[in-house]
Amino acid sequence: MPKCIVDYCHNYAGMRKNYANVILHGFPTTLDRITSWLISLARGGQVFENLEEMATKIQEGKKHDSYRICSEHFTKQCYMVSGEKKVLNKDAVPTVFTPPMVEAHWSPRHEPPSRQTKDFLKRRSAEDAPQNPRKGRPFCKSCKAAEHGKDLDDVVLNLTLEIIYLLTGE
């Protein structure tokens, strides 16, 4: 069963009743047009080991029409309306490549910290430097933070916060 060639696209033949407006288009017949479609796909993030080989493979596969790209990757301007049918223009090239949606497996906490968290923070702030054996102890011999007199816990905390910022944008 043919499916859309775009890596993250979920459309395939047989989904007509669920996605009535999605059309699976066959690739053009000429090698130049096939290559232009593949170049557009590559600009959208699709990775091909060898673009020319893939274009030739698609052209040879035209007999079976096994390579397709769905209508979600074309703009409205790429179509002519002929009666009740939408037909691709001869010069149409796929240009719509939205990145795959990443499902979050966690949700950020918006409620205030729990009592347990507050107690932990109080205990931690009450500790004196001499009582905490981890403070200032380098995790490797060449730790530059310890050489410059920075508290290792602060360095780790700052790195952790930077990572969280990079991952969440907050």
TrEMBL record:
Residues 1-97 form the THAP-type domain. Residues 106-127 have a biased composition (Basic and acidic residues). Keywords: DNA-binding, Metal-binding, Zinc, Zinc-finger. Residues 104-139 are annotated as: Disordered. The keyword Zinc-finger applies. InterPro entries: CCDC51, THAP_Znf. This is THAP-type domain-containing protein. It comes from Eleutherodactylus coqui (Puerto Rican coqui).
